[in-house]
Amino acid sequence: MEGRRTRMTAAQRSAQVLRAAVTAFAESGYAATKTDEIARRAGVSQPYVIRLFGTKQQLFVAALHEVCERIEQVFRAAEIDPDDDPDQALRTLGRSFEVFLTERELPLVLLHGAAASADPTIGEHMRARFGRIYALIGDLTGAEPLEVRRFVAMGMLLTIMTAMRVAGPEAVPTPWAMEILTDLRAEAGPVG
Questions:
Q1: Where does the HTH tetR-type domain start and stop, copy by copy (predicted)?
Q2: pLDDT of residue 192
Q3: Are 133 and 124 in contact (CB under 8 A)?
Q4: Could you write out the DSSP letters of every residue in the chain?
Q5: What is the pLDDT of residues 21-49, one digit of tens each?
């Protein structure tokens, strides 16, 4: 029975649309992304996207939550040794940023979420999720608030560098960025 397509479940189709939305929002941001572009990428109709998620705003919030879940998952998978002191735990967690450099959509959607936070609904979700990530870093490492803030600040620098394409697999060789990345890798220590 060649040529016969297998029907996707509603959950599979919803996940497919959400993946397409994350990609589209990462590329164009909230304001510039159209739901018909997301529908085209997902291989569905634009009314179907709206039927699944309601509004573009609700779809963006769902994409933001998806990205934040992935960020939290990456941090939880960092394999911090319970015997590590907070500094070592932060260094271990810092190596997780290699994932963000390769999964470029994560930092981009996070930046677009921050940029779209003037919208009350998006801002409410963005602040809550960013706060969860901030608290998770402290919980996982046992670090003092000042050290957690420094870690988050450096993470945001890496997020911006990724958006500018001076970090990650498609990085444009830029001396100042290479200096920062070399220093960070040396500070984090060997992986494993």
A1: 11-71
A2: 33
A3: no
A4: -TTPPPPPPHHHHHHHHHHHHHHHHHHHHHHH--HHHHHHHHTS-HHHHHHHHSSHHHHHHHHHHHHHHHHHHHHHTT---TTS-HHHHHHHHHTTHHHHHHSTHHHHHHHHHHHTTTSHHHHHHHHHHHHHHHHHHHHHH---HHHHHHHHHHHHHHHHHHHTTSSSTTPPP-HHHHHHHHHHHHHH----
A5: 999 999 999 999 999 999 999 999 999 99
